[in-house]
Amino acid sequence: MNRSRLRADEHTYPIHSPENDDHLVDPNGCCVLGIRMLLRCDRGCAALKEELLRSLPSAEPACLPSNADMFTRMLKLRLLNVVAPVYFFTATAVTFVFHFCFFVPTIFPVPDAPLWASTTLHTALFLFSMFNALGNYIMTIRYPAASAGDSTVPVCSPHCSDKVDAHYLLNDRHFCKLCRKVILKRDHHCFFTGNCIGQKNMRYFIMFCIHTSCTCMYSLVLGVAFLTMEYSISFEDPLTFLTLLPLSTGYFFMGTISGLQLFLVLMLYVWLGIGLVCAGFCCQQVLLVARGQTWCQMQQGRLQEIQSPWQNNLKDVFGTRWILGLILPVQTVETCSEEKQD
Fold first, then answer.
1. Which phi and psi angles does 197 have, rounded to 5°?
2. Could you tell me where this protein is found in the cell (predicted)?
């Protein structure tokens, strides 16, 4: 029996016909919800049919991973899901210790009136950025992007050839293999928070990136000032910072500097890296939000034309009280009902 095949993603599905109506099953074991009902509908389902057909996987033969390969891949992702939050909290604790035990006592040693005011200002700025970073981190976890209307999740076969960690369902819903939940308007899975980023927690995630970037760059500036005052290192030449880590590593093995000094130099590069990555990632997310699109749609090639003004798209995510959200990790937009998305 000849079956027409449809290309989209990495699976193969037969197009509906009377003789193959009973074979609308994912050959790789991933169920497709509502296919038979939608394809049998004669009128009023044109838009849903088109979206369904775009989401059906591809006809190209793929080398299916073995059970061991799938288990190893998922084990690595789950391990990363645990290690990344531990790394975040460790870097946060180290930043606190360096700021209050090394930077402030060294940069502002004499408690006279002008320096006291400067010390208070610097400490307030640092605590403000750190408080907002941790607060939005907690809010990102507290308000997960899981779809409350989906009580049943699809079962994915161990032989699934999907190379990403989620399956596209209908109406901008994805099933995340790591979260084991259906995510509404999924953008990506954040390993640092251990959950998916979607419509409900996108604002908190963006603010988390902004304040984390500010905290890291501010700590970098204080660290450079600390090295300048404590060890008389001049950073007027840009090559000084570029060669600081390899030279410090050599001096450490020669016994010239201590392990604490080497660790401080290493933290300078950690702060720089995290600050730049968070800043770039934040700019990307704001651009996608303004266009009303997600990173998942970019990866799957399902980008559509902008249907609403960018002001409305930003308002849907940041709410009308967006200024309050810049200074406090609070809820500034009501959670949209999922019925509105359907």
1. -105, 125
2. Membrane
| Integer Cα distance of 81 and 233 in angstroms | 39
Asked whether residue 188 falls in the same domain as residue 204, the answer is no
Report d(CA 238, CA 320) in Å as an integer: 43
**Is there a catalytic annotation at residue 190?**
yes
pTM over 0.70: yes
User: What type of residue sits at position 44?
Assistant: G
Residue 73 lies in a domain: no
Residue 151: alpha-carbon gap to chain centroid = 25
Which residues are within 8 A (CB) of 313 and not within 5 positions of it... i.e. 6 or more apart? 289, 290, 291, 292
> Which one is catalytic: 190, 196, 209, 278?
190
Q: How confident is the model over 138-195, as pLDDT tens digits?
A: 999 888 877 666 655 565 555 555 555 666 666 677 788 788 788 888 888 888 888 8
Per the DSSP assignment, residues forming a β-bridge with 273 are none
Does residue 134 lie in a domain region? Answer: yes
Name residue 250's amino acid.
Answer: G
Distance CA 279, CA 257 (A): 33
Residue type, 205: F
Q: 202: Cβ–Cβ under 8 A, 6 or more apart, which residues? A: 145, 187, 285, 289, 317
| Strand locations in the chain (E) | 5-6, 13-14, 166-168, 173-176, 181-184, 188-190, 195-197
Give the structural domain span for 186. 147-154+164-194
CA dist 85 and 61 (Å) reads 38
